[in-house]
Design goal:
It contains 11 helices and 13 strands. The chain is α/β, with parallel strands linked by helices. The structure holds adenosine-5'-triphosphate.
């Protein structure tokens, strides 16, 4: 269990994390989502005791990170790939971590096996591919067999096989009853991996919900209907008079705020020939962009 209570971090004039409170429960994958610069990494760093809050608290298993008697046995994390010394072998890197955390050396072989790096144990971390580096990072996170896991953008830059591997691993941890907090700026990735979502923007909580509730709440919002007609301009005006919002292309219209059957009925009533009438569902990704639109740091001009 991870608990944030009024967690706040200020860097000079930047309020990176702003009065954030939420709970991450065991047995579930909680997706931590927000556009670039939303404050996800800063929040995770504070949970891990790598950064001090300006105010508020973050606790793991009821304690601040510095109060945990054996931090690696409580919480494992993957913050960035390549955290290992490049000249150190995978085995030595993990052995060093195990020894400084009073974990048995036998655990090093176990975790190397778990992440599929047993054959690469003697190779230097600096020679690893991105995917292997990611596996090494996960091996380190698992060393203390912790009940809580924090992963910051773990699939960034991975090939499809690597992405599937991490996704399966994460789902497995939650099924074992662990608490998993997983950050991403990709809603599509979250839809496949997370049970719950915490969405932040500009350091503040925007939404918190089960992934199903989130989909239900936002399904429909932003749905569009593609219409092709030789009478685009006049039909667009007619649609707008009926309350729809219309984007006009050379020979197509993108209609929001009116269902496809209603567009079809209106066209029939007006005697407008339709060449195409296609409903398009808004994706979860679009719902997320809509939700965080005002919180994007450097958005395209609108
Ligand atoms: N050490 C620091 N010094 C000053 N400002 C910082 C520092 N770390 C983060 N920030 C600022 O705090 C804000 C939040 O950054 P953070 O990296 O936590 O966001 P994020 O959600 O993880 O973004 P991304 O998805 O891009 O990794 C940003 O405006 C960032 O520029």
């Amino acid at each position: 269990m991870i608990q944030l209570n009024g967690l706040t971090k200020r860097y000079g004039a930047t309020l990176a994390v702003d009065d954030l409170s939420f709970t991450v429960r065991p047995g579930l994958v909680t997706g931590f989502l927000g556009p670039n610069g939303a404050g996800k990494s800063t929040t995770m760093r504070m949970i891990l005791g790598l950064d001090l809050p300006t105010s508020g608290t973050a606790t793991v298993l009821g304690r601040a990170h510095h109060e945990l008697p054996h931090p690696l046995r409580a919480v494992g994390s993957l913050l960035e790939a390549g955290a290992a010394h490049p000249r150190r072998t995978a085995y030595k890197h993990l052995l060093y971590l195990a020894q400084t955390n009073r974990l048995p050396a036998s655990r090093v072989d176990e975790v190397l096996g778990l992440v599929g790096l047993a054959d690469a144990a003697g190779r230097r971390a600096g020679e690893f591919s991105l995917g292997m580096g990611q596996r090494l990072g996960i091996a380190a996170a698992l060393l203390g067999d912790p009940p809580v896991l924090l992963l910051d953008e773990p699939v960034n830059g991975l090939d499809p096989e690597g992405v599937l591997w991490i996704r399966t691993l994460i789902r497995g941890w939650a099924a074992e009853g662990r608490t998993v907090l997983l950050s991403s700026h990709l809603m599509s990735e979250m839809a496949l991996t997370a049970d719950r979502l915490v969405v932040i923007g500009k350091g503040r909580l925007i939404a918190e919900a089960e992934i199903g509730e989130f989909t239900k709440e936002f399904a429909g919002a932003g749905d569009t209907v593609l219409v092709r007609t030789p009478e685009a301009a006049s039909f667009a005006r007619r649609l707008e008079l009926s309350g729809a919002h219309v984007q006009v292309g050379p020979d197509e219209l993108l209609v929001t705020g009116m269902s496809a059957p209603d567009v079809g009925r209106l066209a029939a009533a007006e005697g407008v020939p339709l060449f195409e009438l296609t409903p398009r569902r808004a994706s979860l990704e679009e719902a997320f962009m809509e939700l965080t639109r005002d919180a994007v740091e450097y958005g395209a001009a609108r």
